[in-house]
Design brief:
Layout: H1 4-11, H2 17-32, E1 35-45, E2 53-62, E3 66-70, E4 77-80, E5 83-84, E6 87-88, H3 94-105, E7 111-117, H4 154-157, H5 163-192, H6 195-208, H7 240-260, H8 264-284, H9 289-303, H10 309-320, H11 323-326, H12 337-357, H13 366-377, H14 390-397, H15 401-417, H16 436-444, E8 449-451, E9 458-465, E10 472-478, E11 480-482, H17 486-495, H18 497-510, H19 519-524, E12 530-531, H20 541-544
Parallel strand pairs: 11-12
Antiparallel strand pairs: 1-2, 1-7, 2-3, 3-4, 5-6, 8-11, 9-10
Helix pairs in contact: 1-2, 5-6, 7-8, 13-15, 16-18
Length: about 550
């Protein structure tokens, strides 16, 4: 089916050689644009390489807007250009289509620097048709009619209403009078045909806006005055700060390229050299605070002139994601989204360790206390309270002021000592007592327990590991029943000699007046071989006494 341009060329006439040449050029151009090939340059993920990335790929584009991309070991990746009236749009190129497709496949995992088309051989241009012989020049019988088109201002050409319409009518009336006067003058000048009158005619026609193209053979036309050629516009002067900014951009892009290629040493050297040059230039000519504030305001004003929130946010993200901008950001803004997520997870897990895993109902032993202090000291600086960050740290980690202050002190001692962590040992409480008299009370006193005559078995009581061999030690005890309730047993204990023994031992140990253990301490020292009677079991003296 012939295209619309070919039909237009055919309708222009067989004798029009220029139109036929343009038609042939359009057909050749479209034939050359049916298929285009090229390569992609950038960084793309690939699992079969050593570093997991590839730097190049190929692509193929046809006339329908379909683009096929081949990158590394991946299968062909299809992409489509946007269409309008079933034809690819001019403002949506193959690069736009490839970027959209790769952004869906590998978000934040690829860098597409550019797409380069291969140079294909030009199609053979058809030979132009021979031009037709020129027609003989025929002198017109009558001079061409003079056409006068007045160039009025816009406000006079636009007819309005009221006063504006009156002004426009008056203007056109004046023009008609001027046209009639001009025609009379031209008739007089044409009748005389004098050189002076001809010169006056040219001047009048220049004033009225008409080109004098009617030259007669008898009188030579007066040559027009030569107009001086306009001087070429001077090249725009580049400011020194603009040249310095362009050079800085090139150096930062080079450092980013080295980082992307894995050449960290060369990239670090380039950045150090860049920092040194910047410090030297800043020392020579330091920009004032007013200049910095004014330039920052110009950038902000430019950003907020682009549209609504979505467009503005995308512009800012694209601006900050540029390679030359990432290296200029402050340290707290250079971290990626994964770094921020990892920091948040570390803080949550630290708080969970302190609040849930190291939670204690009573007093912690020395091992638990050292583990807790070590975990908190690893996260807090020595000058935490001098920086006025103590309460913020306690809220973030879920610790108390006592634990936080002890961790800061332990961290300070570890840094001063320089030999690692030192075990924190604590002293015993003043009410600490010896449990040996209470253990003997449970087994020896008839008011505490009695033998289980119904079940003549033994219970294994764990005594702990052997101090030398580290083997677990057990002791066999016959099963016994507790006599009475816990309160009754404790009341019998306070009246017994075992309570006086505990009081004397605690007085010697602490240097204070001895104490008698309470109900909770007595119940905690109850041996594993002693069980409380059930609901249906009798606890009277008749049932538990054996008579011979």
């Amino acid at each position: 089916r012939p295209s619309s341009s070919a039909l237009a060329c055919a309708r222009s006439g067989a004798g029009d050689s220029t139109a036929s040449q343009q038609c042939s050029a359009i057909i050749v151009d479209r034939a050359a644009m049916t298929q285009r090939r090229g390569r992609l340059e950038g960084t793309f993920p690939d699992g079969e390489t050593d570093d997991g990335t590839v730097a190049e790929g190929t692509f193929f584009e046809d006339a329908s807007g379909f683009v096929s991309v081949r990158i590394g070991s991946w299968k062909p990746i299809p992409a489509h250009r946007k269409k309008q009236n079933k034809r690819p749009r001019d403002d949506d190129t193959a690069e736009h289509a490839v970027r959209r497709k790769l952004a869906k496949l590998w978000p934040d995992k690829f860098v597409l620097e550019r797409m380069v088309y291969e140079q294909e051989p030009d199609a053979a241009t058809p030979e132009p048709e021979p031009p037709q012989p020129p027609l003989p020049v025929q002198r017109p019988r009558h001079p061409p009619q003079v056409e006068y088109v007045p160039q009025l201002p816009e406000h006079r050409r636009d007819r309005g209403t009221g006063a504006r319409r009156t002004i426009a009518d008056e203007t056109h009336d004046e023009l008609r009078v001027l046209v009639r006067q001009r025609d009379k003058i031209l008739q007089v000048l044409a009748a005389d045909q004098l050189p002076g009158a001809r010169l006056l005619q040219n001047a009048l026609l220049d004033v009225l806006g008409k080109d004098d193209s009617d030259d007669d053979d008898d009188v030579a036309a007066t040559p027009p005055l030569e107009q001086p050629e306009p001087a070429p516009a001077p090249a725009p002067r580049v400011q020194p700060r603009e040249r310095a900014g362009r050079a800085l951009r090139v150096q930062i892009r080079e450092a980013h390229r080295l980082l992307r290629l894995g050449k960290n040493t060369e990239a670090a050297a380039a950045l150090d050299r860049l920092e040194a040059e910047g410090a030297s230039a800043d020392a020579k000519k330091h920009a004032g605070d007013s200049v910095i504030t004014r330039r920052a305001k110009e950038i902000r004003d430019l950003v907020f002139k682009q549209g609504h929130l979505g467009t503005t946010r995308r512009i800012v993200e694209e601006f900050l994601d540029a390679p030359e901008m990432k290296l200029l950001l402050p340290a707290h803004l250079q971290q990626t989204s994964k770094d921020a997520e990892t920091a948040r997870l570390m803080l949550e897990q630290g708080k969970s360790f302190v609040k849930r895993l190291m939670k204690a109902k009573g007093r912690r032993n020395d091992l638990e206390r050292n583990v807790l202090l070590g975990a908190v000291a690893a996260l807090c600086p020595v000058d935490l309270f001098e920086l006025k960050r103590g309460r913020s740290f306690m809220r973030a980690m879920g610790t108390t002021w006592a634990v936080t202050s002890q961790a800061v002190k332990a961290r300070q001692e570890a840094e001063d000592r320089g030999k690692g962590w030192k075990r924190v040992d604590t002293k015993g409480h003043y009410d600490k007592v010896d449990i040996a008299p209470m253990v003997r009370f449970w087994h020896e006193s008839a008011e505490a327990s009695s033998y289980d005559n119904d079940n003549k078995r033994h219970a294994n009581v764990f005594l702990g590991p052997h101090p030398e061999t580290k083997e677990e030690m057990y002791e066999k005890h016959p099963l016994r029943y507790q006599n009475g309730t816990n309160e009754q047993v404790h009341e019998a204990f306070t009246r017994s000699s075992y309570a006086q023994q505990c009081k004397e031992i605690s007085a010697k140990t602490t240097g204070k007046e001895g104490i008698i253990p309470g109900l909770t301490s007595l119940i905690n020292t109850r041996c594993a071989c002693i069980k409380k009677r059930g609901v249906g079991e009798c606890d009277c003296s008749i049932c538990k006494t054996i008579h011979r």
